[in-house]
Design goal:
Helix content is about 70%, strand content about 0%. The protein is mainly alpha-helical.
């Protein structure tokens, strides 16, 4: 089922992305002045800002949909544009596009909402980036499991384990040099030499 979704998402992304890019390019060719005038006449608030945002969202967002990069961000921007178009321009004209209605804009909004909710699918740049991060995380998890299963090596001891160290409560200065040498020889495993 995932493969069916991925192929359907690819076809839908490219189709919807091309439509958005075409509308953004048309606004760009006409210039922001005429687009701003059209938005002013339609009663769109802040028409200059809305014209610039709409043109950029359609061009850039459409291109990002086509390649499937930052798909959810692009879909959110395009959803904002299409909902604004329905509310401020097309809703009062009915459903049919021949009457200036909302059917095309509504279908594009529904597509943008789907991509916002479900993402681009695996056949996209988002999918490739996601699979790379997932592979890295899986590798780290396997390495951690192996590290937990493997016993940690015990560090080698330098002192013999059968020798008990006794400290003189008065401190090291209370021992004579001969006594200290005898202790050193014992702890190193040598026997003290007798003089007699």
């Amino acid at each position: 089922m995932k493969t069916v979704f991925d192929v359907a998402a690819l076809i839908s992304r490219v189709t919807i992305g091309v439509i958005f890019v075409a509308h953004g390019a048309q606004k760009m060719q006409n210039g922001l002045g005429p687009t701003t005038q059209m938005f002013t006449k339609a009663g769109v608030p802040m028409p200059e800002l809305a014209a610039g945002f709409t043109t950029a969202a359609e061009l850039l967002g459409g291109a990002l949909l086509i390649v499937g990069l930052l798909t959810r961000v692009a879909a959110l921007a395009l959803l904002i544009v299409t909902v604004g178009a329905v509310v401020f321009v097309h809703a009062r004209n009915g459903v049919f596009v021949t009457d200036g209605g909302w059917e095309l804009v509504g279908a594009l909004a529904a597509g943008a909402l789907l991509f916002l909710a479900l993402g681009a699918g695996r056949i996209s740049l988002d999918g490739i980036v996601h699979s790379m991060f997932r592979a890295r995380a899986d590798r780290r998890a396997r390495d951690q499991e192996v590290a937990q299963v493997r016993p940690s090596p015990t560090p080698p001891t330098t002192n013999p384990t059968n020798v008990r160290t006794v400290q003189d409560p008065a401190g090291p200065s209370s021992l004579s040099e001969a006594d200290q040498r005898a202790i050193d020889e014992l702890t190193n495993g040598d026997q003290p030499r007798s003089n007699g």
